[in-house]
Every structure is written in structure tokens, then in C-alpha cells.
Amino acid sequence: MTVSTLSSPNTVLANAVEDAVDVLRPRIVDCDIESIGFSVGTQINGHPHLGTHLVQSLAFLLAERARDEFGIDTSVDFCALDNSPAQTFRVDGRRYQRAYAHTLNADEITALLARHYLPLFDACRARTNVPYAVTTYTQQQDTPAFRGEFLRTLELLDAVGSWLSPNSGSAHIRLPCPVCGWAEKHADRTRLLELDEAGGLFEAFCFEHGRYEADITPLGGGYLDLATLYRNVVKERSYRPGDRTLHVMVKGGDWAFGCQLVDGAHAALGLSCGPLPVRIFTPQILGSDGGKLSKSLLRETAEAGPATRDETTPAWLLDPSEWPGTQEDYVEALTGLGELVLSDPRHFFRSYTTTALEALMSTRRPATHDSRAMRPRNMPIYRQYFDLIASGEKTVEVRVAYESMKRIRVGDRINFTCRESSCLTRVTRIGKYRTFEEMFGTERVESVNPRATEAEQLEAIHAIFPPHKEGLGVLTFEIERVDPE
Ligand SMILES: [Zn+2]
Questions:
Q1: Banded pLDDT at 418 (limits 50, 70, 90)
Q2: How many whole angstroms from its chain centre is CA 155?
Q3: How far is it, in rounded angstroms, from Cα 439 to Cα 279?
């Protein structure tokens, strides 16, 4: 399979949007949004596989696309789930686990992140100019927002538990033993004793240290380890709408199924103080039998030996360190794949087999750049400039040289948008400059804006673009109007 033969069927969601980031549009139009935060969480048990890296790189590419599409600053927040189990064992028929957070010290967690995740994140930041921050689950569960929201769910614990654990009906609240850090995996013997405005008092049992109590309050009271679905419910509710940031959860496609239970719990709790974050589900990576490429496959492989591994799955899909090339090649192939699947919502809202993925990634980035075949690129613009482009008076558009802007070529089509209006153009020439002043040494002032002097334009441009953005460089696109198809 090559890029040119990639065809994707229409689907319900792909049919409803022109671009994957359009799923954010209702919230952006509706609210006074200043920034968009893309949140991606990963369990840090063992080395990541391609599916994990794809979700993470797509978070950056989505953030880049949303920034350029909506003209709003975006960032990526990576939550390193250090509550994933590092050790497990069974005693008297009960399963116990100890999390990475209780097995490794903070320096070891940092080293683990630096080895498996940060090289990709740094490469994605360099490529997209989207900043990122890393938060561990240990830090997240320690915040008053998270703990406060958890305490509010306790008022309706039965209803929440019936959604999050439909069989047992009890939500898994793991409160590790304060002495050894071990906790019952399913928290069978953890009980809520008291709940008042100050917090919740629990009792739990350690196989070695016996009964203990944990008094969970917004400001402290011990480690709070929630099972995956419960953690997502609390995390989604802990975002406050008051910060004028639109929060977007970027999740692997299998979460589309899992969120049914998360949404049931949200409904049981009642919508609280504002809209929940938006979710974007990324393509699932499937093995030859249609099962998800998963870390459990890795573990089974490690235990049963290589004979059980699906022979059609190349080793590097499960372990990126096996990639037959440099780290730069890998990032290039990964982001090239990400850009390809984002180029059309039909390529994004679907799944890929490992075989298809291997073919797509080994072709690296699309080598041919066929401008006519590419969809026009939407570019939002202020009304006053939009009107000048639409009337044909403004023929040069000025932008900061983000990576996404640098990928625009002569012949590409740009569709300028302003609210519900749009104006289709073609790029006829591209100029590159170090500063806006330097740009006016070459570009005609009246082509950029026929209604203002050079000094007035520089003042307006500097008001929009602070020095750190101008420092990225300046691009100009000479454009001509073309008729929509
Ligand atoms: Zn203990």
C-alpha cells in the first residue's frame, strides 16, 4: 500500500466534518476560549509500542492544526500514569499490586520518562512548535481540584460504582498501605466509613500490616489511586471552565467503547459546573485478527517466547527500539503518518492494521507533493483582512514561520475563513524574512494592506505577534483568488 492508494470509506463522524479538529469547533464558537490544552495520558509500564507513540504524536499534530485553524494558542499536557502496577501478587485469593510510584523513587520515574517518552516529545515540539508539560499521576492526585472532585463523587458512590464496575457495583478506590505501599487491586475490603464536608474516612487492609485508615481530604490524607475509568471520570470533572481553556482529551480509539461507562457515571453524578472536556479518539492499531495492538500482547510474548507472536507484526511496531533506522527517521515516519491520517477525516476516524501501517510508515513522508490533489488549507483571518482578500485588494498574507506554515508550497490552495465566510486562493509566491521590518523591505506595503501605512501595519502586526513569535521567522504568501470547485 502506498500513500496514493490509501482510500478510506466514509463513516458517520467523517461524513459530518471537513477536518478532524472540526469536532472542537462548536465549543470554540460557543465560548470565549483563550487557549486549548490537549491532554494525553499513558501508563508508564514498560516501553511504549507504536500505538502509544501514535496517540502522543497525534496530540501534537492536532494541537498544531487547531492552533493554525482557529488562531488560538495550544499546548500538550502529558500525564505519565505512574500509578500503573509495577508488581503484583496473590495472597489468600486476593490480588495485591504496588504501583510504579511506590516502587521507584522520583529520580527513577524521571529517568524512565526521559528514556521512553521525552525524545519523541522533544522532536514533536521542535516540529510543531507546540509546547508541552509532563505531569505524573502522583502529582495529579495530589491537587485539591482532583481530590475535591473525587470527594464529590462519594456522595453518589453507589450510582458511580454501578457504572464503573457493572458486575460488582463497587468502584475501585485503591488506598495503598502507608507503610509498604501495597494495595488490594480491586479494593474489595476498602470501605467508606464517614463522609462529611472535611473529607472521606476509609478503612482498608494490608496483607502484612493489617487494618489501616485513610482520611482523604482536598489537601491531603494519603495516596489516592483510582482505577482507570474512575480516574477518567474524576479528571474530566476536575477541569474548571473558568480558566478559559478548552480541554481536549486525546485518546486511543478503544476508548470510544470505554467512554460509555465513563459517560454513564457522569450522567449519574449530574453535570456540575460546566461542560466536560472534548474527546478526540485516534485511530486504533489492529493486529491481523483485528485485535488491538496492546501491551498485553507484549507481556504474553515475554512470557511465552517469540513463537506466540503474530509473525505478521514487525518487531518495531511493538518495540520502537527495533526500528530499522535512526531515531530521527522514526519520528519523521511517525509524524508523516500522523499528517497523512489528519489530511482527511476519513483517514482519521478509522482503524489501521499493523500491515497497513507498516506499508504507510515505510514509505516515510509522502514524497510527492501534488498540490492539486491536496485539500485546500483553511486559514482563519480577521474580518478587515478577509474583506480585503475577498475584494482582491490584499494579495500578500503575512504569517509567522511555524512548521505547518513552512510546509505550504507554491501552488497550494489556501481557503481564508472568517466566521461563516470563506475565500479560496492559490499561492503564487512565497517570501521568507527574519523580521517584519525586513519583510517590508521587499513586499509592497499596499499588497499587504492597501488601507494602512507601513508604520501603522508594523504596529498592528507587532500587537498580534509578540517578539518570541517573530523570532521564528516571517513568511509571506502571495495569493490569487480562484473559483471554488
Ligand atoms: Zn502494608
A1: confident
A2: 31
A3: 40
> From ligand 1's centre to the CA of 52, what distance in Å?
33
Torsion-angle region of 305 (φ positive above 0: left; ψ -120 to 50: alpha; else: beta): left
At 406, the pLDDT band (50, 70, 90 cuts) reads: confident
CA 191 / ligand 1 centre spacing (Å):
17
- Interval between CA 177 and ligand 1 midpoint (Å): 5
Q: Distance between CA 267 and CA 52 in Å, rounded?
A: 29
Nearest to 36 by CA among 222, 183, 182, 246: 246
Q: Which of 39-48, 144-153, 321-330 has the highest mean pLDDT?
A: 144-153
Most confident among 168-177, 317-326, 362-371, 400-409 (mean pLDDT)? 168-177
Q: What is the rounded distance in angstroms from the CA atom of residue 167 to the CA atom of residue 163?
A: 9
Is residue 343 scored above 80 in pLDDT?
A: yes
Cα–Cα distance measured from residue 183 to residue 189, given in angstroms and rounded to the nearest whole number = 10
Q: Distance between CA atoms of 107 and 425, rounded to whole angstroms?
A: 53
Residues 330, 323 contacting (CB under 8 angstroms): yes
- The Å distance, Cα 183 to ligand 1 centre, comes to 8
Q: Mean per-residue pLDDT for 231-250?
A: 89
Number of alpha carbons in the 13 Å side-chain half-sphere of residue 405: 21
Distance 135 CA to ligand 1 centre (A): 27
CA distance 317 to 328: 16
Tell me, in angstroms, the distance from the centre of ligand 1 to residue 136's CA: 23
**List of residues 6+ apart from 138 with CB closer than 8 A:** 82, 83, 101, 223
Taking the C-alpha atoms of residue 227 and residue 213, their distance in angstroms, rounded to an integer, is 19
Q: Which domains, and CATH codes, for the chain?
A: 3-166+227-285 (3.40.50.620), 377-481 (2.30.130.30)
Q: What is the mean pLDDT of the chain?
A: 88
* Cα→Cα distances 378→93, 338, 427, 477, 478, Å: 59, 18, 13, 14, 16
Measured in angstroms, how far is the CA atom of residue 222 from the centroid of ligand 1? 13
User: Which stretch of 101-115, 173-187, 284-298 has the lowest confidence by average pLDDT?
Assistant: 284-298
How remote is the CA of residue 201 from the centroid of ligand 1, in Å?
A: 18
- Give helix 255-269 / helix 157-164 axis angle, nearest 10°: 170
Whether residue 301 has pLDDT greater than 90: no
Amino acid identity for residue 422 in this structure: S
Give the distance (Å) from ligand 1 centre to CA of residue 97.
11
173 Cα–ligand 1 center, Å: 16
